[in-house]
Amino acid sequence: MDNRADARHFGRRAVLGGASAALLASAASGTATAEDGQSPTGPLSEIPIVLPRTELVYEAVFDLEPMMMLGQGPLGERRIVPISGGVFAGPRLKGKVVPGGADRQLMRKDGAHMLNALYELQTDDGAVITVNNRVLIDKRLDGTPYAFSNIDITAPEGPHDWLNHLVFVGTLHSMAPQPKVLIRVYSLT
User: What is the pTM of this model?
Assistant: First the structure.
């Protein structure tokens, strides 16, 4: 095992051990629980709440082909939008969107749209990165749009390996009437 693998393995053990110790300590201290009729009035632990921060990884403009309707399914209307190309750029990488990906869409019966785009990006140094971008598009209670995603990125070993060790979220923006979308991808830090 390399040092990074040892650190990840040790880190998981430390977190699990710490969580187990905290659970045992709270049980032993007689902390009020729903079982004894009292409800908690604040955080469930003494661990401070630290909100995640984000850092821009890249933004990409995707060129899209015409939508293909796939028919009604038990969860709603199904369709697919082929990806024909595009470009991306960020602080640590840039390149082009490889043609051949696609955005599979489900128009749910409750009005929400679920998108699952699987595509590849090729960096200027030739590395090919695979992206699976799952988006939920809906409207908030006040009617404003909601379009956020969780993203899996797989990069080859080498200069872009850092992408394999982060959690990613994103935003989606239509560029209509052009057949394009803008995706912004952020890492959680």
Answer: 0.75
CATH of the domain at 76: 2.40.160.20
- Burial (CB count within 10 angstroms: exposed 0-12, middle 13-18, buried 19+), residue 101: buried
pLDDT digits (tens, 9 = 90+) for 53-93: 999 999 999 999 999 999 999 999 999 999 999 999 999 99
Looking at residue 181, its amino acid is V
Nearest residue to 80 via CA among 98, 60, 65: 65
pLDDT in tens, 121-160: 999 999 999 999 999 999 999 999 999 999 999 999 999 9
- Least confident residue range of 40-49, 106-115, 150-159, 177-186: 40-49
Residues 34 and 117 in one domain: no
Question: What residue numbers bound the domain in which 64 lies?
Answer: 54-188
Burial of 21 (0-12, 13-18, 19+ CB in 10 A): exposed
- Strand, coil or helix: what is 28? helix
Q: Quick one: 6 and 78 in the same domain?
A: no
The two structure tokens encoding residue 137: 């598009």
CA distance 143 to 57: 29
Q: Which of 80, 120, 121 is nearest to 103 (CA)?
A: 80
Alpha-carbon separation of residue 152 from 2, 55, 72, 76, 114 (angstroms): 24, 16, 28, 25, 16
